[in-house]
Amino acid sequence: MTTTEERGYTPTVQGTGFRATVQRFGGNLAAMIMPNIGAFIAWGLITALFIPTGWIPNDDFGQLVNPMIFFLLPILIGYTGGRLVHGQRGAVVGAVATVGVAVGAGAVMGTELENASPMFLGAMIIGPATAWLLKQFDALVEDRIRPGFEMLVNNFSAGIIGGGMALLGAWAIGPVMRTVTNAAGDAVSWLVDRNLLPLASILVEPAKVLFLNNAINHGVFGPLGVAEAAETGKSILFMIESNPGPGLGLLLAFFFFGPRNLRATTPAAMIIQFLGGIHEIYFPYVLMKPRLIIAMIAGGAAGVGTFMLTDAGLTATPSPGSIFAYFAVTPRGGYVPMLLGIVISAGVTFAVAAALLGFGRLEPKEDPTTAGGDAAAAVPPDADPQPGTQPAPDREPVAAAAPDQRTSA
User: Fold this and answer.
1) Is the dihedral of CA 69, 201, 288, 250 positive or negative?
2) What segments bear the compositional bias annotation Low complexity (predicted)?
3) Domain extent at residue 149
4) Could you say which of 162, 179, 194 is where a domain stops?
5) Which of 39-43, 76-80, 193-197, 289-293 has the highest mean pLDDT?
6) Confidence (pTM)
7) For 68, 117, 255, 327, which has the most beta carbons within 10 A of its beta carbon?
C-alpha cells in the first residue's frame, strides 16, 4: 500500500523484519478504521439511545441501526482502504466492491438479517484489493490512451473492475468472510462461556506495546463487538484492548517507584493516557523494562475478569480509549461495572508493577560525587571551603624581578 497523508495513526515503521512487517500490516488496518471512527461512534450513540433496550426507545430511529452496521460502515472502510492504495479512483471502486461483500454475507435490504454478518473484515480485504487491480490497469494503459478518450477509459475501467469485484464479493468473498467472522465469534463465545476471556490479555498486552493496539482494537475486537452489540445492545469486546486502567496503574507505579529521572514525566503521561486516551504514551515505559509486561497482563486480565463478572459492556468502540469516551458509550445502568473494572485493573497493574520495580529499592541511590552540577550547586558560593574539597584559588603570576643591568665603565 502506498503511504498517504491520512496514515498517521501508528508510528512510522522502519526495517523489513518480521516485527516491522507485522507493525506495518497493523498500521494499514488502523488506517482504514481510524478515519471512520466518527461514523462508528454515531452508530453506537444511535444504538444506545433508540434500540428497544436503549435510553430512549424509538422504533423509527431504531431502523437506522441495521443499514448503518451492514452497509454504511463497511462501505466507508472499503472506500478508505481503496483510497489508501489508489487515491480517489481506488476509493470509488473499493466502495463498489464492498457492497458485493455485504450482500454476499447476507445483508440484503428488507430482510430480517438474522444470518447476516457485518463485513468489516471483508471490506478491509476487498477495498484495497480492488483499488490495487485498478492501479495495475492504470499503470498498464498509461501513455497509451489516445487524446480525447481519457475520461471514457477511466470511467469504464473503474466501472468494469469495481462491478466485477462486487460480483466476486457477492458470490465468493462475502460468504467466505461470513464463515470466518462467525468462527471468530464462536471462538470468543467459547472463551466467554468457559470464563476464559481474561486469557486474551496474554496476547493482547504484549501486542499493544509493539504498537499494534489500533490493529487489535479496530481490526479484531471492533468488528466482533459491533456484531455482538447489534444483537444485545452492548459488548465486552470493546473493553478488552481499550481499557485505560492498566496504563494508569503502570504510570502510577513509575511515579512512586520508578527511576528517579523518569518520575517527573509520569503526571503528564497519566493525563494524556487516562483522560486523553492516548495509550501509546506508556508503551516506552514498558519497553525500557520488559518485565513489566507481566504487570500489564495481570492488570488487563483482572479488568476483563471484572467486566465479565459484572456483565459490563459498551455500545461502541471507545476511541480514543479515555475515561470520557468510556462514559460516552456506556449503556444505561452500566457505569458501576465499567468503573469497577477500570479501578481493579489499575490497582492490580500498580501492585504487580510496584513489586517488579522493587518498591523503589532496585533504583541506585544518588551519589553526590556523580551528581555533577547539582552537587556543586548545593554549596553556597560564600561558604568556607572544607579542607581537601576545593582547589586553591588561582593567583596571578608574579613577574620575576629583572636583574640589575649595569653598564661597565
Assistant:
1) positive
2) 369-381
3) 64-194
4) 194
5) 76-80
6) 0.61
7) 117
Q: How many domains does the chain have?
A: 2
Answer whether residue 391 is part of any domain: no
Place of cell 479488568: 303
Q: Tell whether 144 and 220 lie within a shared domain.
A: no
pLDDT, tens only, 64-116:
888 888 889 889 999 999 999 999 999 999 999 999 998 887 755 444 555 56
Q: All 3 cell numbers of residue 32? A: 482504514
In a domain, 31, yes or no: no
Phi then psi dihedrals of residue 110, to 5 deg: 95, -5
Q: If you count them, how many residues does the chain have?
A: 409
Could you give the CA distance from residue 307 to residue 161 in angstroms, rounded to a whole number?
A: 46
Same domain, 181 and 205: no
Q: Give, in order, the Cα–Cα distances in Å from 211 to each of 114, 201, 243.
A: 36, 15, 15
Name the phi and psi angles at 242, rounded to 5: -85, -5
- Whether residue 27 is contained in a domain is answered as no
> What is 108-177 written as a DSSP string?
-TTS--TT----HHHHHHHHHHHHHHHHHHHHHHTTTSPTT-HHHHHHHHHHHHHHHHHHHIIIIIHHHH
Same-domain pairing of 212 and 164: no
- Render pLDDT for 267-322 as a digit per residue (tens, 0 to 9): 988 988 898 887 878 887 887 788 899 999 999 999 999 999 998 999 888 877 88
Amino acid residing at 321:
G
